[in-house]
Each structure stands twice: as structure tokens, then as C-alpha cells.
Design a protein that fits this description.
Layout: E1 5-6, H1 13-16, E2 21-22, E3 26-31, H2 37-50, E4 55-59, H3 64-72, H4 79-83, E5 87-91, H5 99-102, E6 106-107, H6 114-128, E7 132-136, H7 149-162, E8 166-172, H8 185-188, E9 191-200, E10 203-213, E11 223-228, E12 231-234, E13 238-243, E14 246-251
Parallel strand pairs: 3-8, 3-9, 4-5, 4-7, 5-6, 7-8
Antiparallel strand pairs: 1-2, 9-10, 10-11, 11-12, 13-14
The structure holds adenosine-5'-diphosphate and magnesium ion.
Adenosine-5'-diphosphate binds next to helix 2 and strand 11.
Length: about 250
């Protein structure tokens, strides 16, 4: 029996994943600042909404109002889905402080209280019947306590996967680091997509590589991508080679 998959809807990505993300997988989207992690996750959620698949976005680093504005700039208006009860923004940023925060429905008072965070995530998933989930970013959850990173990831995974949600967890790494962020985190997740920015001939080039994806084969190559006014577009027929002599783009 073929496995059930969730189509990301991001041009090029489903081809690289040989059809999409296996259902219930928890996928780490890892990369440095400005590599397109948040945009990728938002695009994934919004595509789901247009396909009748409800979703939740847990925001830990940006004000929920700002996230809605950012998404609207790509034409992804989540407000109408929030009004219909098909999308939930979980505000784990404001701590309930400020006028705008008072209008948020799902507010986590103290994101370092993982128990409380998980309760609110559960409530949001149940209310909207979420099929897709995003946490932006999980790094914030263990910033001050890296030794707990893996156990926090496992707790989050148990809830998301247990409730049938296929999720992208954003993980931040520093500009020079080639890892995935946080000790042991990469072992707890079902998949890892790594986003990079490299300078090539005085120009920054975007690329991504699927490092791991439980339940499916996938491209083993580094593919270039772009961010356009409509979001991310990946080129499955092109590869980016990073060698000690430089970074080169070639046809796959
Ligand atoms: N409308 C746009 N068109 C093209 N590129 C954009 C647009 N908006 C943002 N970007 C690019 O996306 C980057 C931010 O992407 P984001 O997903 O927020 O990164 P992060 O990995 O830090 O979450 C910006 O640095 C910029 O290069
Ligand atoms: Mg971001």
C-alpha cells in the first residue's frame, strides 16, 4: 500500500521529496538567518488551506500581527481562514502583553513552560482540525537550556504526530554552522531539510538539501531555489555544487 503523503505545494519540493512529506512526519527546517525558513513554512501552511487542509502556526519569534502582514505580502491571507475556524495562530511571542495581543485567541503566557505551550497547541489543533503544523522556531524553546533540546522536541513530536499533524519545525543555526541546530535535535525528528545561502561570484545563492526523510526516498542533491513575490520556487533539475574551489550551479 502506498504511504499517505502531504503535498507541500512548494514548486519543486514535492518532486525532490518523491511525492511529498509522509503523513505525520515531523520535519526540521534548518538554516541560517534569511535562508527562507519562515517563508517556506508559511507557504506550506497556506497551500494546505487552499486545499481544504486546516493548519496551525505557532509563532515564537515574531508578533502574530507581523506574521499575518508578512504572509499577506505573498498573497497568503490567513485571516479569512482564521475567521472560518480553519487556521489558528498560536501566539507564543507576546506573552499576552499589548493591545494587539488581547485580540489573539491562542496565547501562551510563558513559552518556557513547555507543558502550557503543548496544552494550547493541542487546543488549537483540535479546534481547527489541523492537518498541518508549523513551529517558528523550536530553537527558541531551548535557547537557554540546550541540554533539554531533544526531550522538548520529543514532547512536541508526540503531540503533533499523535494528533495526525504533519509538521515543519523551524530550527535556527548560525551563519557559518553546517549543522542542524541544537544537540541531538536532528535525531528526534523524522526529516531534515537544510536551507543555505552561499556567496558565488559576489552574489548570494540559495539552495536546499533534503538530509533525511523517514518513509520515503528523496533527492540526495543540493538544489538551487529562489524567493519570488509568490514565494519559494525550487529547481529540481538543477544542482548546486559546493567545492573547495567555489560554488557551482549545474544541470542535474
Ligand atoms: N517578496 C520577496 N521577494 C523576494 N525575496 C524576499 C521577499 N520577501 C523576503 N524575501 C527574502 O526572504 C528573506 C527572509 O526569509 P525568511 O523566511 O523570513 O528567513 P528566515 O530563514 O530567517 O526565516 C529575506 O532576507 C529576503 O532575502
Ligand atoms: Mg524566520
Amino acid at each position: 500500500m502506498p504511504i499517505e503523503r502531504i503535498k507541500t505545494g512548494i514548486p519543486g519540493l514535492d518532486e525532490i521529496l518523491h511525492g511529498g512529506i509522509p503523513k505525520r512526519n515531523i520535519v526540521l527546517v534548518s538554516g541560517g538567518p534569511g535562508t527562507g525558513k519562515s517563508i517556506m513554512a508559511q507557504q506550506y501552511l497556506y497551500y494546505g488551506l487552499t486545499m481544504g487542509e486546516p493548519g496551525i502556526l505557532v509563532t515564537l519569534e515574531e508578533h502574530p500581527v507581523q506574521v499575518r502582514i508578512n504572509m499577506a505580502q505573498f498573497g497568503w491571507d490567513v485571516r479569512k481562514y482564521e475567521e472560518k475556524g480553519l487556521f489558528a495562530m498560536v501566539d507564543a511571542f507576546t506573552g499576552g502583553i499589548g493591545e494587539a495581543a488581547k485580540r489573539e485567541r491562542y496565547v501562551v503566557r510563558d513559552p518556557t513552560d513547555v507543558g502550557n505551550l503543548i496544552d494550547i497547541i493541542k487546543e488549537a489543533i483540535r479546534d481547527v482540525g489541523a492537518v498541518r503544523g508549523v513551529i517558528d522556531s523550536v530553537s527558541t524553546l531551548y535557547l537557554t537550556r540546550p541540554s533539554l533540546a531533544r526531550s522538548i522536541i520529543i514532547q512536541v513530536k508526540r503531540v503533533l504526530s499523535g494528533l495526525g499533524v504533519t509538521s515543519l519545525l523551524i530550527s535556527q543555526v548560525s551563519v557559518t554552522e553546517r549543522g542542524f541546530g541544537g544537540p541531538g535535535v536532528e535525531h528526534g525528528v523524522d526529516g531534515i531539510i537544510r536551507l543555505d545561502l552561499d556567496e558565488i561570484g559576489g552574489e548570494l545563492k540559495r539552495s536546499l538539501i533534503v538530509w533525511k526523510m523517514r518513509g520515503t526516498s528523496h533527492s540526495m542533491r543540493r538544489h538551487p531555489f529562489e524567493i519570488t513575490s509568490k514565494g519559494i520556487v525550487i529547481y529540481p533539475n538543477k544542482v548546486l555544487k559546493i567545492t573547495r574551489y567555489g560554488v557551482f550551479e549545474e544541470r542535474a
